[in-house]
Specification:
Elements lengths: L1 E7 L3 H12 L1 H8 L2 E8 L14 E3 L2 H5 L6 E4 L7 H10 L3 E4 L2 H18 L3 E2 L10 H8 L5 E7 L2 H12 L4 H10 L8 H4 L2 H15 L9 E2 L7 H10 L1 E12 L2 E12 L11 E8 L3 E8 L3 H17 L13 E4 L8 E5 L3 H4 L5 E6 L2 E5 L2 H10 L4 E4 L4 H5 L1 H4 L5
Parallel strand pairs: 1-2, 1-4, 2-3, 4-5, 5-6, 8-10, 10-13
Antiparallel strand pairs: 7-9, 7-11, 9-10, 11-12, 14-16, 14-17, 15-16
Helix pairs in contact: 1-12, 4-5, 5-10, 7-8
The structure holds L-homoserine.
The site of L-homoserine has 11 residues, from helix 7.
Length: 411
Amino acid sequence: MTVKVAILGFGTVGEGVYRTIQTHESELEALLGKKVEVAAVLIKNNQKERKIAKDVLITTDFNEIINLSQLDIVVDAIVGKDPAFNYLKQAIERGCHIITANKEMFAHHGKELLDLAEEHQVSIGFEATVAGGVPIIQTLRQLLKVNRVQQIQGIVNGTSNFILTEMREKKQSFADALKLAQEKGFAEADPTNDVEGFDAFYKLMVLSRVAFGNAPNWKAVERVGITSITSDLIETADQLGFRFKHVVSIQKEGDKLIGSVRPVLVSKSHPFYHVEGVENAVNVFSDIVGRITLQGPGAGMFPTASAVIEDLVYVSQSNQQNKLQTNPVIEVLPLAAGSVNNFWLISGVSKTELSPSIHPVDQVSDQTFIVETTDEEILQKAKEFPSLSYYPILDGTQILQNKKEYLTVTI
Ligand code: HSE
C-alpha cells in the first residue's frame, strides 16, 4: 500500500517537498502505515534538468496527472491563481486530498475549495500559505478552537523583513538586499508582490478567514509595502531605538474588523523587535490564553516544505475537517496597524506644513518628526502632502513614559 502524491510545480517549494518526501520517508511511513511516493511532477519547462527519479512521471500536461490510475494527494506549489485553482478543483472532484502553498490562489478561492472538499469528503492543508514553516494555521485551526481570537498581528513576508534587516545591519541598498533575497529563494517570482505588500495582504486574508471565519472587503484594508523606507529613515529609527517591521494586523472590535498591511516601528520591548532576516512571527491575542507569539523561518525551500509535509500527514489522517468557524459578515474599516497608534514617525513635510493640526513631540531632522495624533489626522495630512510618509509606532505609549530614553533630539 502506498500514498501517491503529485507535485504541481518544481520551483523552490516543489523541489523542497520532493526532496523532503525522500529524506523523511521512514517518518512518513511510520506515521501513515504506508509508503509515500511521488507519482508525478507537473513542470512548465521540459528543457530544464531536474533531479527527479526516473520512475516519476514528469509532464507539462495536468491531464496526464489527473488521469493516473492511483492519485491520493495533490500538492500545489504553483504561483498565482490560475491555473492552480482549476487543477485543484479537478483533484478534489476526483477524490484527492489537496495541500497548497499558494497564498494568492487560496486567499481568492479558499472558501470555495474548502466547501468543495467538504462535499467530496477530502481534506485541504494550507499551512504553507502563511508564514512559511511557522505552524500558525494549524495552531488556529486545531489548537485554539474555544478561544475567541481578538487580534492577529504578524510579520508574514520573509523577503520584506530580510530586506529591512540587511539595510539596517549591513547598510545594504534596497536593490542589493532584494537581489540577495531572490538568490536565496525567498522572494516571489515577481518581487513586487513582496515589497508592495500584496503577498502579506493575501496571507492576512487567509489568517482572517481562519481566525474570524470571514473574508473582509479587500478594498477596505490598507496595504502599504516597504518601498518608501529609505536607508536614512532606517538609521534615524535605529538611533531612536526603533526598528521598521512590515506588519499585517487584523482585529475584532465589536462586530467589525480593522485590518491593515503596512510598515510600522517597534521598540525593544515589542516581540517583533528581534524578529530579523527571513524570520516571520505571528502574535495571536485571544480571550482565554492571552497573547501567543509564534516565530520561525518564513520563507525558503525547507521551511515551506516542512509546512507541506506536516500537512501531508494531517490530510491523510484527518477526517475531512474543512469547516472553518463562520461568523456573520463583518465590516472592515481601513485603519493603521496595531491597537495603539497614537505615536508616529513621519517624514517628508516641514514643521510649518504640519501645523496647526499636528504638533510634533520631537523633531528628528529637518523633515522628520515624532508626532502624537490620530489616524484621521495623519490620513488627512497625507492627502494634503503626498510626499508625507508615516509609520505608526506600535508600542508608542512607551515614548510618553520614557520619552527621554528614546528621543535624542529635542525641539
Ligand atoms: N515571498 C514569500 C516571502 C515566500 O518572502 O515571505 C513565502 O511565502
